[in-house]
């Protein structure tokens, strides 16, 4: 197996250890395995033979690096939610750069409609609770919608496995962020962390795998 594949397997194992530590401890293991998981996915994308071109690979690698920074901000004991949100916003912008390679923004406009409907419902649920974060949350929502829309358009236009992996990964990222926001601003529930992290890791893994998949 090539180094990129080994890094992906390592990321899956690291994610499992992180989730276990989140629920059973010790806490220091969560601090180790959460960034390690994203770091290994970054390594996987960086070492892959680019099937989508160098721009796509570089942009995805930058997105994963920014996500790694966001992971660190969100897991620290201090409330650095805004810093984490900013890091992931920049990560989504990097993914948009990747997904617009060979496909301009605005392709398949009909695909945007269900995303706008879902975003409207989520914002309505969060709006009374986000307080001073309303503007950052709106900006973040707009950027992730653009990212997912472009990933869907790429999958629709190209009909390749690589484009499909990116589209499913982008969708999983949106689901993970929605669950995180609902858990933080609406009502926390016991299984939230498992759902947020499983969809998040799946999202990053699929986007990383798309780099080397034709």
Description:
The chain has helices spanning 3-24, 27-47, 54-75, 81-99, 112-130, 134-158, 161-185, 192-211. With 214 residues, it is an all-alpha fold. The protein has one domain. Helix 2 packs parallel to helix 8, helix 3 (54-75) packs antiparallel against helix 8 and helix 7 runs antiparallel to helix 8. The protein starts with a helix and ends with a helix. The model has no long low-confidence stretch (mean pLDDT 92).
How would you sum up this structure in a few lines?
Helix content is 81%, strand content 0%. By secondary structure, the chain is mainly alpha-helical.
Give the proportion of residues in helices: over 70%
Shape, principal axes of CA atoms: globular
Q: What is the count of distinct domains?
A: 1
Distance between the termini: 18 Å
The major beta sheet can be summarized as: none
Low-confidence stretches: none
Task: Please indicate the percent range of residues in DSSP E strands (runs of 2 or more).
Answer: under 5%
Structural class: mainly alpha
Helix-strand string: HHHHHHHH
Count of distinct strands: 0
Keywords, separated by commas or semicolons:
214 residues; mainly alpha; single chain; globular; 8 helices; 81% helix
């Amino acid at each position: 197996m090539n180094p990129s594949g080994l890094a992906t397997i390592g990321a899956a194992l690291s994610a499992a250890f992180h989730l276990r530590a989140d629920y059973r401890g010790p806490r220091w293991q969560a601090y180790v395995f959460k960034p390690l998981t994203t770091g290994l996915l970054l390594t996987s994308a960086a070492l892959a033979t680019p099937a989508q071109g160098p721009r796509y690979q570089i942009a995805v690698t930058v997105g994963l690096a920014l996500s790694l920074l966001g992971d660190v901000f969100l897991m620290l004991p201090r409330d650095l939610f805004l810093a984490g949100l900013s890091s992931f916003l920049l990560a989504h912008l990097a993914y948009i750069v990747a997904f617009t390679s060979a496909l301009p923004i605005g392709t398949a406009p009909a695909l945007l409609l269900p995303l706008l409907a879902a975003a409207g419902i989520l914002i309505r649920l969060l709006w009374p609770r986000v307080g001073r974060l309303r503007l950052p949350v709106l900006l973040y929502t707009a950027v992730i919608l653009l990212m997912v829309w472009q990933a869907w358009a790429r999958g629709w236009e190209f009909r390749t496995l690589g484009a499909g992996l990116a589209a499913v990964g982008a969708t999983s990222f949106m689901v993970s962020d929605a669950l995180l926001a609902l858990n933080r601003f609406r009502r926390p529930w016991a299984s939230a962390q498992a759902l947020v992290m499983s969809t998040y890791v799946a999202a990053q893994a699929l986007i990383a795998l798309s780099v080397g998949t034709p």
